[in-house]
């Protein structure tokens, strides 16, 4: 950090202290430490060279292609508002970071033999003035701003080997080490966001957690992103999901520090904000809009099926999902070993799953549908449900079929249901009203949801079908001709 930046940081911390003193508060030392840490990180991530280093590890082409697809699908399906490209990029980056880039460390595996069952044998402090280390610090540890190094002993190695886990503070060093706990995750992820051109700030909750927020211009607000969980826009994750109390939440941006006394994830405040997100239940104001996932491509064109009448090439969304591993797209991928899971569908609450064709597609009459149970917890299986249909997002839902007391024969088992209604539709919604055991299940899950239609009537697109048929016949004739000439 340059001298100017040091001075600016010191000034800012002093101001913060003065402000607190003026309000009769005394800042606890941990809070001061977090502010310093957050500001240093934010400033470091403004360094163009550091951003360039981060940019070089990002698979930008792949991320941009995925983000563009999300935008395309959103506008093709008439979502209002349609997802904005930077928002889609932020979400794509988050999933990549969690799934492909960074790792969580509880205890460090042996760096020599890979043994995961090592013993923590202490922490060395590298701060100036700290007692002498039993092992000299490595130059990369000092360069990476590690102030502490955790030591892990492996007894498989003879003699016992000590592996060092430097807790790097410098986001650039984390691009190489690619591992850590929530602080390291937030620092490195925030840097990747900055490299991708997203405006971010680091959030410190004094009780012990750190995450990132990204400013969405499309939504006109800061948007919660927790890289450790790949959680996107779920500020209630901590208080509702983990049951922890947030207190003294601060935001560190390169332009300054912000006290988030009314952090939107705190259930004690910002009811309006949470209601807009659909995260509150009943309220005296307008009813909260049901939260739903965005539409994603079903990517089911190549799903193996002995049924040529299976609907393909559509889009799916649901009342909720458990990303990144149990997102809604998993229900259409034809793999009985992957699943869609929705925590919103437990305790007798309704949950739903939608399959839609594009808005330009010819409406189709579905004659049957199949559900495939997931790998575990039979109590999470749908038991009572309704299939509804509609022709467009502006249209209401019509009842097509219903099932009560459905019971799967086992795990990865498929049940088939007939649909007697001949209503042609472009969208189908499976509304699940009860699970196999509502009181025992904490979520709903399914491995598969497939729809089957009557074969297309010849008058639906006469030109194309006859062209195709002619093409096939001609090919047949050529083949026959080729055989005859041999
Ligand atoms: Zn070892």
From TrEMBL:
GO cellular component annotations of the record: cytosol; nucleus
EC numbers, comma separated: 3.5.1.52
Keywords associated with the record: Cytoplasm, Metal-binding, Zinc
Chief location of this protein within or outside the cell: cytoplasm
Ranges for region Disordered: 1-29, 271-333
InterPro entries: Galactose-bd-like_sf, Papain-like_cys_pep_sf, PNGase, Transglutaminase-like
Cofactor dependence: Zn(2+)
Subcellular location: Cytoplasm
GO terms, biological process: glycoprotein catabolic process
GO MF entries: metal ion binding; peptide-N4-(N-acetyl-beta-glucosaminyl)asparagine amidase activity
Domain Transglutaminase-like as annotated: residue spans: 174-229
Pfam families membership: Transglut_core (PF01841)
Catalytic activity: Hydrolysis of an N(4)-(acetyl-beta-D-glucosaminyl)asparagine residue in which the glucosamine residue may be further glycosylated, to yield a (substituted) N-acetyl-beta-D-glucosaminylamine and a peptide containing an aspartate residue
Skewed-composition ranges (Low complexity): 282-292
Protein name: Peptide-N(4)-(N-acetyl-beta-glucosaminyl)asparagine amidase
UniProt organism field: Symbiochloris irregularis
Lineage summary: Eukaryota, Viridiplantae, Chlorophyta, core chlorophytes, Trebouxiophyceae
């Amino acid at each position: 950090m340059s001298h100017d930046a040091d001075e600016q940081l010191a000034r800012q911390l002093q101001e913060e202290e003065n402000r607190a003193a003026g309000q009769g508060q005394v800042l606890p030392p941990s809070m001061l430490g977090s502010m310093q840490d957050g500001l240093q990180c934010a400033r470091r991530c403004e360094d163009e060279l550091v951003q360039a280093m981060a940019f070089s590890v990002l698979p930008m082409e792949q991320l941009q292609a995925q983000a563009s697809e999300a935008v395309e699908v959103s506008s093709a399906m008439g979502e209002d508002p349609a997802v904005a490209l930077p928002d889609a990029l932020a979400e794509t980056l988050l999933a990549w970071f969690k799934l492909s880039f960074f790792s969580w460390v509880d205890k460090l595996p042996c760096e020599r033999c890979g043994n995961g069952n090592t013993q923590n044998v202490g922490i060395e402090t590298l701060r100036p003035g700290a007692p002498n280390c039993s092992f000299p610090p490595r130059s990369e540890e000092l360069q990476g701003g590690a102030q502490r190094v955790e030591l892990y002993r492996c007894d498989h190695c003879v003699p016992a080997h000590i592996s060092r886990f430097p807790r790097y503070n410098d986001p650039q060093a984390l691009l190489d080490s690619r591992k850590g706990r929530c602080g390291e995750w937030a620092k490195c992820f925030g840097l990747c966001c900055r490299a991708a051109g997203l405006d971010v700030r680091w959030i410190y909750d004094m009780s012990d957690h750190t995450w990132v927020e990204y400013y969405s211009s499309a939504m006109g607000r800061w948007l919660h992103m927790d890289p450790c969980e790949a959680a996107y826009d779920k500020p209630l994750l901590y208080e509702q999901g983990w049951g922890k109390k947030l207190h003294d939440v601060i935001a560190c941006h390169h332009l300054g520090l912000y006290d988030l006394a009314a952090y939107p994830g705190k259930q004690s405040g910002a009811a309006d904000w949470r209601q807009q997100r659909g995260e509150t239940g009943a309220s005296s104001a307008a009813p909260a809009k049901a939260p739903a996932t965005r539409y994603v491509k079903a990517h089911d064109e190549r799903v193996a099926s002995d049924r040529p009448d299976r609907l393909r090439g559509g889009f799916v969304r649901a009342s909720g999902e458990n990303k990144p591993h149990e997102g809604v797209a998993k229900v259409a991928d034809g793999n009985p070993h992957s699943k869609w899971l929705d925590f919103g569908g437990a305790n007798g609450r309704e949950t739903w799953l939608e399959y839609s064709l594009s808005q330009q597609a010819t409406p189709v009459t579905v004659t049957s549908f199949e559900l495939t149970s997931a790998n575990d917890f039979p109590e999470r299986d749908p038991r009572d449900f309704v299939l509804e249909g509609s022709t467009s997002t502006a249209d209401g839902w019509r009842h097509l079929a219903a099932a009560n007391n459905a019971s799967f024969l086992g795990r990865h088992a498929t049940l088939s249901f007939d649909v007697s209604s001949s209503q042609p539709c472009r969208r189908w919604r499976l509304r699940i009203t009860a699970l196999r055991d509502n009181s025992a299940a904490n979520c709903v899950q399914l491995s598969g949801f497939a729809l089957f239609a009557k074969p297309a009537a010849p008058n639906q697109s006469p030109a194309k079908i006859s062209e195709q048929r002619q093409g096939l016949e001609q090919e047949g004739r050529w083949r026959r001709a080729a055989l005859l000439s041999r």
